[in-house]
Amino acid sequence: MKKERAHLKITGRVQGVGFRNSTKRKANQLGLTGWVKNLADGSVEAVVEGRKSDVNDLISWANRGPRLANVNKVNVDREEHKGEFSGFSIRY
Predict the structure, then answer these.
(1) pLDDT surpassing 90 at residue 1
(2) DSSP string covering the chain, please?
(3) What is the value of pTM for the model shown?
(4) Where in the sequence numbering do the catalytic residues fall?
(5) C-alpha–C-alpha distance, residues 78 and 4, integer Å
(6) What are the tens digits of pLDDT across the range 52-76?
(7) Other CB atoms closer than 10 Å to residue 67's CB: what's the count?
(8) According to CATH, what is the number of the domain 3-82?
(9) Tens digits of per-residue pLDDT, 12-24?
(10) CB–CB of 23/36 below 8 Å?
(11) So what's the pLDDT on residue 52?
């Protein structure tokens, strides 16, 4: 099964609504590795790695986000899987 990496930038009302914690929980449910963090411009950035179908599931989820979020757009850059992460973390 093919593995891949995706670099996401999520814009909208995505800070202060539990987006990072929800992303970590969803990534762990899907068995993905990587990280998520808030950016100074009010967006959220994430890098996820794992099975292509699971990465796609997380991207679909990110287009909705947690209950209080209002996602405007998710930019996705697909990259080669690097296998550099041992788990999924929140970066500050």
Answers:
(1) no
(2) --EEEEEEEEEEE-SSSSHHHHHHHHHHHHT-EEEEEE-TTS-EEEEEEEEHHHHHHHHHHHTT-STT-EEEEEEEEEE------SSEEEE-
(3) 0.96
(4) 20, 38
(5) 7
(6) 999 999 999 999 999 999 999 999 9
(7) 8
(8) 3.30.70.100
(9) 999 999 999 999 9
(10) yes
(11) 96
